[in-house]
Write a structure and sequence with these properties.
The longest helix is centred in the C-terminal third of the chain and has 35 residues. The protein starts with 8 loop residues before the first strand and ends in a 15-residue tail after the last helix. The chain is built from 11 helices and 21 strands. The strands form 4 sheets. Strands 1, 2, 8, 9, 10, 11, 19 and 20 form an 8-stranded mixed beta sheet that branches. The chain has a 7-stranded mixed beta sheet with strand order 6-5-14-15-16-13-17. With 415 residues, it is α+β, with helices and mostly antiparallel strands. The N terminus is likely disordered. Helix 1 runs parallel beside helix 4 and helix 1 runs parallel beside helix 8. The chain has 2 domains: 301 residues, FAD/NAD(P)-binding domain (3-Layer(bba) Sandwich); 86 residues.
Amino acid sequence: MTSDPQSNRTKKVRCCIVGGGPAGMMLGYLLGRAGIEVVVLEKHADFFRDFRGDTVHPSTLQVMDELGLIDGFLKLPHQRLQKMDGLFGGTPVRIADLSRLHTKYPFIAFMPQWDFLNFLREAGRRFASLEVMMSTEAVDLIRRGETIAGVRAKTPDGIIDIEADLTIACDGRHSTVRELAGLAVEEIGAPMDVLWFRAGRKPDETEKVFARVEPGKMMITFDRGDYWQCAYVIAKGQHEAVKARGLRALLDDVVRMAPILKGGIAEVKSFDDVKLLTVAINRLKRWTRPGLLCIGDAAHAMSPIGGVGVNLAVQDAVATANLLADKMQHGCPSENDLDAVRRRREFPVKMTQRMQVVVQNNIISGALKGGDVPLKVPLIVRLITALPWLQGIPARLLALGVRPEHVHSKAAPTS
């Protein structure tokens, strides 16, 4: 399509970011900080969506520190996790110990994602070059020949054409922009889906067990202060079968696995309180078109294993600003310059996905098969549990990732 200012409102900016998730809001903040005229489009009226990625890892905490935002950020309500313990067929195991890391913030902060995103939006208000447009959904691309020249968006006040030197898709694993641009997705696959729900928690309830694995069943529980956030893992495509068994059968399984939830499980009143996360691992081979770049989940969907998705998205945003902010002062970077983001980020993405696939194939797939044979703790897990010094290795991979990014983009002078 082409822009038609006769029929729609028109807005011109240097950069249009589609999607106000972790990648979009962090990149918007960084580009606004650099003095780039940027608009972030978020299709919802607010950031309040339950059961999103709520884990803020040390790599992201370090970025917040480098931006001078960490003190205010850590004043927001959150819980901290250092040691990741589990039960594998009834055998206690330790998966990782972040206290062994030589890093400034050796813990994972559990914080509702809407608090994280609202914090970035409020912090970004001091940059005159940054605008966040809520309730604004990209519905088409503006094209000039082979070049993407912005987006057409639907707002409460009607259609607006946002013309931009550079459009950046941060609109998630079901990216509209990616689809409109015709970028092909390489599916890697996952053997499971996840049912998310919350159970009430009494002030005196404490438990350090993070993961539970039994024949045919797997569950993760997070202590969120006044409630337990729970992830019940099911075999891929079995959601309807679980619903057919009935809610009571599901909750009985949950309580058998995690008796600590017995007192609060009554808060799950129907399947409306149980949200399905369809797990996917995929990535783009090509992240760009002329005038367009995809990052975050729009470029690579991650499994929930390790809770790394949010943090990889933030790392993408930091790398994008590092590589492109200076070039964007003068217009749209070349497609080769845009592709530098993929060249920088593709290795950590592939390595992280490869590790997730190893966990899927060697632990989760076997556990979900069920049967009467008792589960055996995998050798690597036995070694990590028995040799505490090894617990820093998975901790480092979880906390910092394969190639953590640091803020190198410059801040524009402030008046």
